[in-house]
């Protein structure tokens, strides 16, 4: 698994008066995609938190190439682009499921960088268990 | 103080593709109004939580009489309609600030019922301190 | 089809500092459930809007019986409880998918009442086409 | 006016189960700050839209240096960092109002790039009227 595809529908409340998806919602979708990515690895993020590891976002960014709107069936293609001692970087591509086979379907690209912290919000090294699983699946 | 007026602007992201404020956001505004109501009583809700009292919502409702939209300057008029052993009920009226003096300006009415719980989410009696402050201000 | 089950995961951003799903989000989920209900009837809400029919909410309500939290797999069981000349009423029950077979699994109940309006937001009668489809499926 | 300070309170629903403000909400606050920036220039964004100019976001980014939480009184310091033929770039700094006089108070920095489009979402040149007002106020 080099990437994971998270599929969802744009909700009515995700749109704004311009008739398109409000820009901040893409970051909500990135987060939902991360959740499903971890689950697909066999490592639900809820389990990480139970073990005392948290992954707050330290940087995020998005470029908007084309709009989406209500009821669009979208995919957030998610991959881990970088693994460091105590941080990791996800990259995202958003496109319409129906455009999947076409030439330039990307609506939005983005990334997020996360650091590992413990229950007291102090930075810590990425647990070996997590590093192992993520590394293994990146190489498949 | 029989009621408290919370004033705010509708944000772009609060609207939907119908061009009006999305219905769920009124509940977010009710909550912001409750926060300012408690602060006006001299009893910030953050202090309640520090003391170990939480006030989850057990019921809420809204009627939508007329729409609002982006950049409207709205007021949520908030009052405490009921005080029981371990619960309280807020009522809300939303209107445009500019319509304040006109005849039928109400855009939305609503209410919320809250129970007092402790840190373990177990129901508890309303603390006397809170009852005292709320009662006193209702009578002014 | 007497009811329709909409299934989804609670997102991280849906929670609040109390550690549970923020109350206003249930109304967002109700709306997503309505969308899937219409699609299941063979009448996507996007098609209604293209034909010039809109269904703004005029009243909504929720009772919160037990909390949900991040990553819970929830179901919103949705049914049409009332059809009038120009309005309809949906009812909702929210429960955890894993609790489906247990005795008292309901986390939240709610309803919403909608009126039919045209492109100019003027009330209109429910189109026969919609009445037909909804009536037919209620009787199955 | 080289910059504009937008002041607001973090709402309960803006937090997540980590106890801090959810990362996507900073982009909602950036947008509210832009709205107030335009108003301070004497050019409400609603007027821009009435004249047929829209300013969708084409890129945005945020770095999170320290968390904020419920009821924090925050400031988004907003400035126009770049004016091009058909685009403009805003920059943001978020800090607690009470930290304003201290040494390293910044919680979050970010930017957003916007293009001018007409009613049909076609890119267009920035109207001279807007360029004039923004340029003038940047030089004060």
Topology of this protein?
The structure is a homotetramer.
Chain A: E1 4-9, H1 25-40, H2 45-50, E2 57-64, E3 73-83, E4 87-96, E5 106-115, H3 128-139
Verbal overview:
4 copies of one chain form a homotetramer. Chain A is α+β, with helices and mostly antiparallel strands and 140 residues long. Chain A has one domain (4-139): Thiol Ester Dehydrase, Chain A. Chain A has 3 helices and 5 strands. Chain A has a 5-stranded antiparallel β-sheet. In chain A, a hairpin with a 3-residue loop joins strand 3 and strand 4. Chain A is globular. Chain A starts with a strand and ends with a helix. Chains in contact: A-B, A-C, A-D, B-C, B-D, C-D. Chains A and D meet through helix 1 and strand 2 of A and helix 1 and strand 2 of D. Strand 2 (57-64) of chain A pairs antiparallel with strand 2 of chain D, so a sheet runs across the interface.
